Amino acid sequence: MVKTKMMEPPLPFDIKFGNEIKEVYGSLSNELGVLLGGIGGCSPYLYNLLIEHENWLTKRLSIKNFDIIGEIITDLDNSSDLHKTLRISKSKIALWTAICDLGGFWDLDKVMQTLTEFADLALQRSMEFEFNNNSKFKKLVKVNNGIDKSGWFVLAMGKMGAFELNYSSDIDLIFLFDDSLYSDEMYNEIRMAFIRMSRSVNKLINESTGLGYVFRTDFRLRPNPSVTPICLSIDSALGYYESAGRAWERAAFIKARPCAGDVTAGLKFLKKLQPFIWRKHLDFAAIKDAHDIRQQIKANNLSPGANSLLGQNIKLIEGGIRDIEFFAQTKQIIAGGRDDTLRASQTVKALKDLAKRGWLKSNDLTVLTDAYKFYRTLEHRLQMVNDLQTHNLPLSKLNFKRISYFMGKNNTFELVEKINKNLLLVSKITRNFFSPEVEIYEISDTFLDLSEEWLKLPTLRSDRAKEIFRSIRPIIIKKALESGNPDLILKRFSKFLEALPSGVQLFSLFASNNELIDLLLEICASGEGLSSYLARNSQVFDSVLDGDFFRQIEFDKIFPKVVKEISNNGSDYEVCLNSIRRVYSELHFRIGVQFLRGMLNSEQAAFHYSSLADHILNTVWFFCCRDFESTHGKMPQNGAILVGLGSLGARKMSATSDLDLILIYDAQNDLFSNGKKPLDVPVYYSRLTKKFLTALNAKMEHGELYRVDMRLRPSGNKGPVATSFNSYKKYQINDAWIWERLAFSKARVICGHQELQVKFESLRGNILNKRLKKENVFEEISFMRRKIELTHVEFEFPWDLRRGPGNLLELELLGQGCAVCLGLKSRDTLEHLKYLEELGNWSSGERNKLLKLYLLMSHLRQAFALIGSFNDLNNDEAKFVHRFVGKELGFIDMKKMKESLSNLRKYASDLINKKIEDGWMKNE
Prior knowledge:
The protein is mostly helical. It has 39 helices and ten strands. Helix 7 packs across helix 10 and helix 16 runs antiparallel to helix 17 (362-386).
């Protein structure tokens, strides 16, 4: 036999018993004799097994076969008395596992896995036995299907579920059956049959006889155990968890797995339970729930102030096994809903995954992992002594010496020192997580009244919300004071709280991550735009804690994963749309914060907002079409495309941009769809378009996506919402107004049928190649300018970029005029304006000044969309906004920037007026 780890063999505590065992196994090598003597001299239970199974063990040790499970399966297959064979098998497993563990032939994982595999096997054979011998049940269902099709299964919970069974562990079980497989008329009899069979299985496993027991069982993790039977229906269990499930039950199900019976039905049940276990938001409120449970455990199980380890519970003591498990599971509950790589059931793997994703420091990972493995090894030795499910350290120094010897140490002090060291290191990590020390700040009278008003807001209606908020309120005020502009920031923070629908989760998030308070106050300082968005979508704060939040956004990597995840979940259409909204709101927020922090400039922000829109539209279109086609059939012939215009088409979107869209289809010769409910082609695409628009702008759990404007389609609001390609082509060539041609210069296909995309791009190129006459185009532009000027709306010059002299709209019209007159394929106004000289009567200096103005205003547009308005530019207290805007536009002094913008706008307006009045657009 070859060792897999170097370790000291146990030293015989009782030398007499140790020598007896060495003598019994005298035919073996001296190394094995020393090992078995040490085992027999430390454990009365294993001493008896070594005597009882001498012949079997001698043979097994001589053939050097580690595969004990394979042998047990053979024994069970040939058994005529399952009750007896299971108990004999249990004693063999116990003996062989102890030898492989104490001899260093197996590591801890292999030890726990082998014990768990035997538990699975014992349950499977017991359930098969009861199922196959229950003639009444078979007569009832009138089928001969095996247990794997019966709907009856058992969930392994706790350590068994995670393949982490202790040496003498109880097993936590939940028996369930799939009631959907049986008719309503049969339900009561089926239910009673499964209850009787589950009881019989329990007796077969749990009953203690002269041969011992197989496993002690515990069914207290089932729903409402004080009033429910041993076996429940899936439907009743799901109903309980959906309506009354508690935080500790969510954590318990991290380790749950179907281990015997109809495993397929078990997996189906757990899949339905996923939304209960894993929340899509970061669930920091779980920290307090777990902390409360920890406090109850400590109050009920430990002796406060104990100055000795004697009798202490290595599982429940502070810094012990349970603290490590709670720590890992709570962090999994917090983040596992958003990141499915954090759902491992094994404790050590869970810790490693958390460290890999940035939720655990590497040093803490080492401490917790080493301590956990040490504790579990110690726990096994404690249980091996007398085959007891105990976690208590010995009550006497003499018995502590026994455990030291069992661990291969003849110095008890060395073991005590190692236990104390691990308890201290683990406690420091877990205590700081569950109940961190909060620095106490005094709230000045200046802000006390304001902060007391906060506690009256709807978001703080619950006692739990008030409790958590009071712990972070002084931190918020202190940080606002440090900003140098507390009045303005706290005023906006008040508005943020007023708009917040609920606060427990968010305040828990802040309490555990104070750096997020800095970000929130920075956002409040930046204006009302992003802070108002946050109040409506507070769940997006979760995304800040993702390791990728401040990194470059890779849309092409993110969205294929999103589509795959939504598709794999098999969710209904509404759930799909809510999932897309969650992704949209998080990425929208991420772009805004990166722009605010200077990680993106205004041009990059415009491209990112546009890329986000492209990917969201593609994703919504995919799921919308999939749902629609399931009823009405696939799109006829070349399908349809979505065409974006305006800022979407030009990839110049901002944080507040609407979408200008047209839907074009190409059914060719098809007249109807071919689904279960066929529709004629115009009706098909009309309904599909309306469904798609609803998917975009319906207000759902995670808000709306985009407001959509379809007035740029042929015939505007009076025309059909979907247009055939041939009709659109004919309209653009023969009937389109000049203003429609101007808008068409920015048209871009967003998604849809590839062949139709190619046809549309070809059409766009052909139409732009047919250059319009300059005098006609600029006569129309002149008319549009006058129409805009006649709309009497109050505005503030020069900050209002869409109104007044030299506004953005007239510069964009001027650029679009260049595009349709010169056949420019670019969709970018800046590129269009570079060709002004080719229209005649423009100097390069005049062109450059317009380009400078357009750049200045397009950058300001992005900034204003983010901060919510331009009002703060007139407010001397809004220092953060001044720094943000000034840095983006290259100005330190807001007054100088205002003066420069005002002069440029007046210059541009006078220049365009002069060109039009002089007839510059006419051929000379």
